[in-house]
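In the laboratory, one determines a bound structure by crystallizing the protein with its ligand and collecting diffraction data. In a computational setting the workflow is compressed into a single prediction: the sequence and the ligand go in, and a structural description comes out. We illustrate the idea with flavin-adenine dinucleotide.
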Amino acid sequence: MQDNIKIYDMVIIGGGINGTGIAADAAGRGLSVYLCEKDDLANHTSSASSKLIHGGLRYLEHKAFRLVREALAEREVLLNKAPHLIKAMRFILPHRPHLRPAWLIRTGLFFYDHLGKRKKLAESRFISLANAESPLKAEITQGFEYSDCTVDDSRLVVLNAMQAREKGADIQTRTRCIAAQREADYWLIKLENQQGIFQIKAKALVNAAGAWVAQFIQTQLKLQSPYKMRLIQGSHIIVPRLQQDDRAFILQNEDQRIVFVIPYLDQYSLIGTTDREYSADPANVVISHQEIDYLLKVSNDHFKTQLNRTDIISCYSGVRPLYDDASDNPSTITRDYILALSSEQQLPLLSVFGGKITTYRKLAEAALEQLQVFFPKMTGAWTATEVLPGAENLNHLEDLVFEIQHQIADVPLQLAQRWANAYGTRVWRMLNQANSLHDLGHDFGHGLYAKEVDYLVEVEWGMCSDDILWRRSKLGLLFSQSEIANLDEYLVKLQRLRAREDAA
Ligand SMILES: Cc1cc2nc3c(=O)[nH]c(=O)nc-3n(C[C@H](O)[C@H](O)[C@H](O)COP(=O)(O)OP(=O)(O)OC[C@H]3O[C@@H](n4cnc5c(N)ncnc54)[C@H](O)[C@@H]3O)c2cc1C
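The predicted complex, in structure-token form:
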């Protein structure tokens, strides 16, 4: 066993949005932080969301005013923190006879407009849909339009991990926590990675294991979980673009459930989500035939373009780890978060139950506020105003695209746009003095060059093709099996080289 076991102020279990958000916040307040993720960053729920930064219009109906107010206000905070990843979007809510009366929807939207601070996002309005250009069926003649935002969810996680590292945190992926216990003065934490088993110590342990939060308390800590979890599966399908412009649709089905149809990347629409109880291993969640049929039916009930299974380009599923409020309907279980703190022997354990991508920053602030008493020297909240990596000196994304085209003369516009959206001003670090596509090295297909792959491995914890094609980018939608095999072969060589360099 190790002689010198390293001691951290805080060890965080889980590299989803909540773990990385807490890691960035804590490191920025001067704590020494270690985060372990058993798989890749955002490998689970944090890459399987509807990709919305939203107040949650339907949570108003459930009277979740605290959550909605906090989430609404976060939209503009996050827009400023990462304008390359987070974009304002208009949402169309078609009005159909089975819905609430128009005056009631108008009142709900009035609250939505005014409950949180709003400077950049336009207010809601009534719209006519009785025109030939509307992609909706002719009988849908009117509706409402309001604002929310979309986000590249998995990249938001990576940016938080990068910010945490830049503030001094140690972030380790493919590293599982297999046990932890309170010793006399520290948590003793046992971890396992490809090299074997090792231990670290911490003054505070944060359990941000998402769908595994309760299981982690019982199995790894051998303690009793203070709350029960409900795992609710949600699935999405990706189809060819249904809308002509860049507005999303929020469709309310006759069963009162809501389905979004969101413009996705350049040529697709993302349709989701479902809500169903889930009890198997969260790592193995996959879309069911019933969910596919449900999503297709809701879309076909509204849109002129009729879809069937063969139109589906891709799909994904995730589980919402929700705090069990004993609700009998999966759609109405609270989306709010609960932080459970136990502080036996002055060695805190803070567990995160529930939450949303939208509220991760506020959740992290609330977590650190609860832990402040154990770290009296810790500095105050800072994340509301400091931008995330890539948003430094970023004024207008179009200007950045123009500058990229100026630097790399032969770059196609679409590729310059993809880089600007993904990396913001960190694109210069990725391009690393390149002046032409030739300087970027081998082309793995669809505009993925060796230089970008190297950057994703060196800077963004990318290790295998899935990390790069599904979580650092969405190029997986375009890559063939043989292109994936080529990329994997290159990554294996790169990892070997890095291992040799580390050993030397
Ligand atoms: C279908 C769906 C749609 C959604 N849509 C939205 C939306 O549009 N907007 C929004 O704001 N929110 C949305 N959400 C909610 C949001 O996605 C989640 O609340 C959020 O991603 C949860 O993040 P997390 O960090 O808690 O969990 P996760 O992302 O699951 O991260 C937890 C991590 O802990 C790791 N882990 C577990 N055990 C261990 C261990 N022993 N050692 C090391 N690591 C471990 C796991 O591998 C995992 O990566 C949606 C959720 C779903 C399922």
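The radius of gyration is 23 Å. Keep in mind that any predicted model is a hypothesis to be tested, not a measurement.
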